[in-house]
Amino acid sequence: MTGGKSHDETVDGDAEITLGLLNAVQESSAVTQRGMANDLGIALGLANAYLKRCVRKGYIKVSQIPPNRYAYYLTPHGFSEKSRLTAEYLSSSFDFFRSARSQCEADLQRCAAQGWTHVALAGVSELAEIATLCATESPIVLTGLVDPNTDKPSHAGLTIVANPQDLAQFDAILITDLADPQAAFDHLSKTIPVERLMAPPMLGVNRARDAADRENDI
Question: Which fold has domain 7-74?
Fold first, then answer.
């Protein structure tokens, strides 16, 4: 049809607006619908429709603040969705490799500075491949890859295990999951000290969520 949007264009735009709203709410609970619309460059009515959808899906909760004002907050489910959409967007970005390499190098350097020379990865992805390249130029030894969601025996030259306890040795774990990095972080943090879980900033992982929030995740 002439002048219409393709399915892929509609899906991409849909995800971009949703991610924009989730980012806006995380940055300020006092953000207004008009402010969201202005920041995203969309009509107020469209921002309202997407906001209602996010509330309906459980990504955002709303509290009324007198007089006639509302505060918006990301739910644990909203944090997870924001992380997933961020990773999805980044993986299709031309800047992905450059940003991923820089941030993986920085995380591995932090590990080395702490004396953590044996590091495992968590998540089969392009990011894991980039991390293995970075490790070859550092004193870090990668000891394996944790991913319970794949049947592959190995990836990027690393043996895959379902749980970190199945690894022979590791001092820290670098999150490389692009499908749902927040869920990977939350799952690992149940058994691994959070200070030993590294996550490139590009993944948008929220490290501040407490145990109660994680238990309430769906």
Answer: Arc Repressor Mutant, subunit A (1.10.10)
